[in-house]
Design goal:
This protein has about 400 residues and is of the alpha+beta class. The protein has 11 helices and 13 strands.
Length: about 400
């Protein structure tokens, strides 16, 4: 891995919101000066550059310029709901947010919910947290004998991959961001820039076949080196759907969501697939942001979920009962800095005591998310917000004990 989480901010990214096509590592934009920080004396390293799905540096500059013209819209944190002890502890860390939902798992079968203007049943875009579900689909395909981690693009696509420079790229490479594919499909760069300028979904208009065709036409660069790629995980999900002779949303529902009874979690794929009451999110400065359904790139960040469903999901992943739970435990890549990657999950020793947290974060144009758990004790947390401001520092702080709940 090229970088490791470090102060001064939770992301240190140069991209605009969400799992955007930007950073070499996932992470949202640099938080504004008003974002809460932990005391320097007990500072916990935070996830760096692992959530961005938008349109890179040009897009970030455009959004900053646009929001400067319209002016920021001050955020008001919603009224507390759920566990009052939990919300009292969380509130000081949520300046700049509006609607927030949190699920805290104690590792012993009890889950506490707290929120601000939101219950545990409110739906949020979860951005790159979606990648962990795509990892579960990969692990499940391996368990069913449909693929191995060494299965190549050509073995899935056959003659369609003839003469492609990525024909011998494997599922293991796609799941660990070492395939050499860029963060974003090259044919999406201009459209992504314009969409980000307009606070729209930069991935719209490209279906699963488009993702595959664009990947086949791409020449990898830096293959074997870790470079965070939304494009690569989008391809991973579409290849898995091809293997199962279905589409990504259906595969996700049949193999992960329905077995776990995650009734409020889904991948809309297009705006038409959104539920009638689907909430919209906000940019970091408070402007309204259009939903991101992400089309063919949905395997990299297109899921909507609730704190209640994510609590169920995390508990089942942590105890090994979830379909594809091996995605979170089978380490495929060890970085020189000690960081480890399994199937679209990351493992890091944030506390510096040898223990590792299993985690992923996410951000879209109007939402942010963090999920993580301690694989030894089973303690976990899901944090969801409808503002594109990172909640990584809060999530990590809770799991390391830096934020006392």
């Amino acid at each position: 891995m090229t970088e490791h989480p470090h102060p001064p901010g939770p992301d240190d990214s140069d991209d605009t919101g969400a799992d955007a096509p930007g950073s070499s590592r996932p992470g949202p934009e640099q938080p504004p000066p008003s974002a809460p920080e932990f005391p320097a004396r007990t500072r916990t390293p935070r996830p760096s550059r692992r959530t961005v799905l938008a349109a890179g540096v040009p897009g970030a500059a455009a959004v900053i310029g646009l929001t400067a013209l319209t002016g920021p819209r001050p955020a008001r944190l919603g009224d507390p709901t759920g566990d009052p002890q939990l919300t009292t502890a969380l509130a000081p860390h949520l300046a700049g947010h509006r609607h927030v939902a949190v699920a805290l798992l104690d590792g012993k079968g009890t889950t506490r919910f707290g929120g601000f203007g939101a219950t545990a049943a409110r739906a949020f875009e979860i951005g790159s947290v979606t990648k962990t579900f795509t990892g579960a689909l990969l692990a499940e395909a391996v368990a069913r004998g449909e693929a191995t981690m060494d299965t190549t693009v050509a073995e899935v696509l056959g003659a369609q991959a003839d003469a492609s420079a990525i024909a011998d790229v494997t599922f293991a490479e796609l799941a660990t961001h070492t395939s050499g594919l860029p963060r974003l499909s090259p044919d999406m760069m201009l459209a992504g820039w314009l969409a980000t300028l307009r606070r729209k979904d930069p991935y719209a208009g490209h279906d699963g076949d488009d993702v595959i065709e664009a990947a086949l036409a791409t020449t990898p660069s830096g293959r074997g080196e870790h470079s965070y790629s939304n494009f690569g995980v989008a391809l991973q999900g579409q290849l898995l759907a091809r293997l199962a002779d279905t589409d990504y949303a259906t595969l996700l529902a049949r193999r992960v969501l329905e077995p776990l009874d995650l009734g409020e979690t889904y991948a809309p794929i297009t705006p038409a697939g959104l539920s009638a009451d689907a909430p919209h999110g906000h940019t970091p400065t408070g402007l309204p942001a259009a939903p991101w359904t992400m089309g063919g790139s949905a395997p990299a960040g297109g899921i909507r979920s609730t704190a209640s469903d994510l609590a169920t999901y995390l508990a089942a992943v942590a105890d090994g009962s979830a379909p594809g739970a091996a995605a979170a435990t089978e380490v495929l890549l060890k970085g020189e800095d000690g960081e480890r990657t399994s199937m679209n999950w990351f493992h890091e020793d944030f506390a510096g005591d040898g223990s590792r947290i299993t985690w992923h974060n996410g951000m879209t144009g109007g939402f942010a998310a963090f999920v993580g758990f301690d694989p030894v004790g089973g303690r976990g947390i899901a944090v969801l917000t409808d503002t594109a401001r990172s909640v990584d520092e809060l999530g990590v702080g809770v799991l390391t004990g830096e934020v006392d709940l």
